Amino acid sequence: MTAPAIETRSARARPLPLRAAVLAVFVALLALAPLVLADFHVTLLDYIGLYALVALGLVLLTGVAGLTSFGQAAFVGIGAYASAWLTTTASPPAWLAWAAGSPWAGLALGLALTLAVAWMLGALTLRLSGHYLPLGTIAWGVSLYFLFGNLQVLGGHTGITGIPALEVFGVQLRDARGFYYLIWAILLAAIWITSNLLDSREGRAIRAMKGGATMAESMGIDTARAKIVAFLIAALFAALSGWMYAHMQRFVNPTPFSLGFGIEYLFMAVIGGASHVWGAVVGAGVITILKQWLQDLLPALLGQTGNFEVIVFGMLMVLVLHRAPDGLWPIVARLFAPRTRAAAREAPQGEPLPRRALPARGTALLEVRDLTKRYGGLVANHRVALEVRAGEVLALIGPNGAGKSTLFDCLSGVIAPTEGEVRFLGRRTEAMRARRIARLGMSRTFQHVRLLPAMSVLENVAIGAHLRGTRGVVAALLHAERDEERRLLVEAARQIERVGLGERMFEAAGSLALGQQRLVEIARALAADPCLLLLDEPAAGLRYREKQALAELLGRLRADGMGVLLVEHDMEFVMGLADRVVVMEFGEKIAEGLPEQVQNDPAVLEAYLGGID
Amino acid sequence: MNLQIALLLSQDGITNGAIYALLALALVLLFAVTRVIYIPQGEFVSMGALTLASFQAGRTPGTLWLLIGAGIAVAIVDGVAAWRRAREGAAHASVAAIVGWNLAYPALAALVLHAFDPARLALPLQVALALVLIVPLGPMIYRLAFQPIAHASVLVLLIVAVAVHLALVGLGLLFFGAEGTRTPSFSDARFELGPIGVNGQTLWVIGASIALIAVLYLFFERTLYGKALRATAINRAGARLMGISTVLAGKLSFALAALIGGLSGVLVAPITTIYYDTGFLFGLKGFVAAIVGGLASYPLAAAGALLVGLLESFSSFWASAYKEVIVFTVIIPVLLWRSLTSRATGDEE
User: Partners of A588 in the beta sheet?
Assistant: First the structure.
């Protein structure tokens, strides 16, 4: 998907009477609907709610985390079949005999089974990048469907009948009307916890993956965990929907859990708007109503019976992805709440986070010996050695292609060096992953800016503070971590003020000029409270005054005792700021020393200006 | 299981494997050149088989209506684009080319079908006619669904491919109906090979697959267009700088994919009963094979295809109800192996 225009409620200072009012009216209409609508329409709304719950999981998984799944219908099936089997089986296994017949035990079984299956599938397939995952989901979507249809204990292709009705607080839910409030209450609750999650530290970790795993890992985010969290939540929503479906229909067969339905769920999310929780509801509504209408219209029109609505869905989907890749929700949202940019929002206020104790000035932070990085026959770094001490700025300069960024990646754990030794704070780190090195207190920026353009500057910077929070997913889902969240945002705001972007804190990061985006990256790195800062061309794209301000900031950081390793092409900037300079050419260190020494070094002059002969 | 059964199952497996290999090659080609993971590849198979069956039954094949419809749609889209560019004074496609390919060609095909009763033609001519109808659908689908978003991410292209699959399956049902058909075998010859009999169609399938692979090899190695496609697959931007149009490369590779798919369908039609939606599972099995090759290696994909074919025929003997479950579950260890051999945290474009 493109442009993840996630809106969360993080903008707590923004009073949104209009939005709250629209939501209140919507909920009131939902509550009144069954009182005035005919059975047929109530049933339709039930299905919309059930489908929207699955699509909501896909919003989190696909729209937010960027992981596409065509296999959600299989999880719906697990939820439905688990409860259907447990409540109807005449011969439950001994260890489950106590639970047989109870839909609630069926729900627990379905969720547990889904969790187990999803965890296993996720562990196997989520490591895969990009397109392998959706292909994997297609494969297990097909596989589980055939499994449902061929397991005799699940009734084969005929399915299971005679599933008991649900009883909630002593009320029997016998028909579609009875189920209506249960379905929509669960859906609204799911929307609530999903929005809570997105507006939290854990949610930012999931959202950060769209900025690339490299960036997320360098900020200390465990991307494998973030993926599996999103995947499990989406699977559980699907299973919950399946459970309600089974007890509402009172019978199940494999058809609604086929790959075709899995595809339809994804279409709902994409057409509704995969980057927004309400997109799931819009998408489920549009597709369900359209399907109902087309199933009546098309066979009559074409004089044949068959699922011809897929023709329209297919073409509609192509059209939506061509013309409105963000789906329908942004269009709907503009209708109800025209964007009025509340300009004056207050920066978050509160108690700051505890700081890391910085090593004494002059101690060696980073020691690199004989570092070599080869790509096949190409030697990008050859036996490079350098040292960065606390309270100094070390500049790394050299012509383009000298291997500076490769060295940065080796030092920060993004790639592993082929040979050599890296010590950070006395610990060997050359084999460590970026995430662990970040935890030790190294933070970095990227030569090619890696921000999430649709997220606010504040949220982008808060990603940097990821490791300074501890509250987990469950707390985030329930928003029980608001104290910690406030302190993280306060810290992010402080760092944004520090790089001089306080005015633009609430704007989308993508709307800033490139030079300012680099400053946002610096703020993000600072939010991690590092003792060593790796900056890759921080001054590129900055105007003169901005460069001066940046030099002042780096000077202050140095005075505080932080170590800074800097790659930069602007010689005036480098020579005015750096304590020492290392020069690289063709992957090797050719000079090292004080700025003025390096400037007069014949090897350096030759590297930059060419030989005289 | 005795040796004879094992050999029979192997024969089945290799025959199906040959078809999967063709599909896997088409999928690797499409992915390499256009980055499209083309889920509907199997639909070309169904169309090929059902078109041939329609000829033999003396019916007008639904593919003709599809071709005419798609042609009109492309003519409109291309016409509007050409008109816009002409208004800006930029170079644009000529009216003759737009009308010729998208309107005149389908009309001509309709005339030919009307003039010669395909049911009376010899089999090779029927096959050729079927391909005449199917091959242009490839570039037309590319033009309508993929060309406007050629630079989108692989994931978006994949979702569009799935959408195209849905639309084509629905159209297949509309044009060919829900009944399945099986065409007569290309030859009734039977050969005794040791303890088992090998039937003629098996040899046809394997022979034609090998021949097609050889022709494709020559095409990619020896012809300018083949080299252009390879160049695009290796480096899209570089190829464009050398004057190789991305659009042309996309259309050409889709035409090849349609050719391979249609031919696979014609070959497989005498072996299996083909319904309008049978192709999908064929295509997916081609995918399992293509993924074995990492969507990049042709020989590995072909080897994967044989593996899928054999696995399928042997599992249909041992646990026939779970045949599909087994085939599609195999992809998970394959994916795992792929994931362990590639670095996990690499960023995608």
Answer: A585
